[in-house]
Every structure is written in C-alpha cells, then in structure tokens.
Write a structure and sequence with these properties.
Order of helices and strands: HHHHHHHHHHHH
Largest sheet: none
Shape: globular
Organism: Methylobacterium oxalidis
Distance between the termini: 68 Å
Family: Belongs to the Nth/MutY family.
CATH class of the largest domain: Mainly Alpha
Keywords: DNA damage, DNA repair, Endonuclease, Glycosidase, Hydrolase, Iron, Iron-sulfur, Metal-binding, Nuclease
Number of domains: 2
Cofactor: [4Fe-4S] cluster
Helix content: 40-55%
Protein name: Endonuclease III
Strand content: under 5%
CATH superfamily of the largest domain: Hypothetical protein, domain 2
Number of helices: 12
Length: 254
C-alpha cells in the first residue's frame, strides 16, 4: 500500500560509500583538463546522451549493464520492459522468469534477484516505485540515498543521475574510463573503480555542467574502447602520448 506523503518510512543510515577526498593536486587537475581538451575534438563534444530514461528505469538498465556488453544489456532491458511493462510487475514476478528474460547478460542468476531487491528497497523507502524526487536533492545527497541500498555502488548512482532524464552533474567511471585514467596517472594503480569516482571528480572544475561531466566520462570511455585497449593499446596513435607515462614506457620498450 502506498505511504501517504509526509509519512515515508525513515531511510536507513547511508553507508559511507565515498571517503572524504582532499582537493585535487593542481598539477593533476591541469592534466585532467588538458586531457579533456584534447579528447573532445576527437570524439565530438558535446556528445549526445544515449539514454532518455526515467531514473528508475536507468537504475535497472545500469544494474543489467554490469560487466556486460552494451548491446547485450540493451537487449535484456528491452526484453524485460516488453514482458513487464510496469516495474511493479518485475517486483512481483517469479525470479526465475526474470532470470530467463535477461539471460543474455552476464550473471543473470545474480542480477534477477538483485533487481527485485533494489526495486523492493525503493518501494519500501519511498512508498512508490519512483526516483523523480532525486532531482530536488544535491548530487551528493542523491548519491548517498541511492548507495544506501545494497547492490548500488558509485558507478550505478552516478549513472542514474547523469544518464537519466534527471541530467544531474555526476561523473560515472566505468572500467574503460578507469583504465585510461590509471595509465595517464590521474589515479594510482591501487585505486579501484569505486574509490576513483571522487578522486577523478575532484580534478575537474566544481562548476562544470552535467553535459561537461558526461562528455568527460564519454571521451575517456571511448578512448579506452578505441585506442587505449586493455591488452594492446595503440600508444603510437594516441593524442595523449606525451601526457601518458604508461604509453611512453611502452613506446620506449624494445
């Protein structure tokens, strides 16, 4: 039963998902800006948003996309929506049916119950399956609200705010983005994807718009996909080679 406005259940105390981050080193901030400046003409900033989903739908889409090719997660999302036009139907459905519907993604046996658990948490905390209220919060408050739900981490919370119709200034970091940032020395070799979020965001101007941050994520991600490959990066063809200690070491190797 929906909860009347003003009588929402108290939210659980958010877990500390992102440690306090000191201001970025000025040299790294300057490098981050120069990287953005060089990559934008290559990949065509401003880059059009690839989704115009409501935030709850974007949340489910993001959960499906973990460690999965975009084409496969996109097909799974469309199949899920075709079979269950309303997210309440997904929440109430048999988990095995959901798993079969999203079979094309990586680990459908884990993602099916996780999606239901996340939807259930949203419904219990808000009294409705709707995340539109996040637009009235600050980015940090909205991310903390989302990340208090088990199964939602920094990448997913940022994706919901940035990629959905909310268009809020959050910086997602995926594996390609993270790999390029590490090779360029923007984050250390021991900083994983989750902890890299506040570090990389702090290197960019605080007043950047949602489009600016989306562009930054997209150009680094695209560069990782098209040039800075995981196994055999094309360092000799990279416009960032003079800024990249990893690329310079590779080119200098016999």
């Amino acid at each position: 039963m929906p909860i009347e406005p003003g009588h929402e259940r108290p939210a659980p105390r958010p877990r500390r998902a992102r440690p306090d981050t000191p201001p970025a080193d000025p040299d790294l901030a300057a490098r981050a800006l120069e990287i953005h400046r060089r990559l934008c003409p290559v990949y065509g900033c401003p880059i059009p948003y690839f989704h115009s989903l409501d935030p709850l739908s974007e949340l489910v889409s993001s959960l499906l996309s973990h460690r999965t090719r975009n084409a496969d997660s996109g097909r799974a999302f469309k199949a899920l929506r075709a079979r269950y036009p309303d997210w309440r139907q997904v929440l109430d459905a048999d988990t095995a049916e959901i798993e079969a519907t999203i079979a094309g993604v990586t680990w459908p046996e884990l993602k099916a119950p996780r999606i239901q658990a996340v939807l259930r948490a949203v419904a219990e905390r808000r009294g409705a399956l709707d995340l539109g209220f996040l637009r009235d919060m600050t980015v940090e408050a909205a991310r903390a609200w989302l990340e208090a739900i088990p199964g939602i981490g920094p990448k997913t919370s940022a994706a919901v705010l940035s990629f959905s119709v909310l268009r809020m200034p959050a910086l997602p970091v995926d594996s390609h983005h993270h790999r390029v940032a590490q090779r360029l020395g923007l984050v250390g070799p021991r900083i994983d994807v989750g902890p890299a979020h506040p570090v990389l965001r702090a290197q960019l101007p605080a007043d950047w718009s949602a489009q600016d941050l989306y562009d930054n994520h997209e150009v680094l991600m695209l560069h990782g996909q098209q040039v800075c490959h995981h196994r055999s990066p094309a360092c000799g063809a990279c416009v960032l080679l003079d800024l990249c200690p990893t690329g310079q070491a590779r080119c200098a190797s016999p």
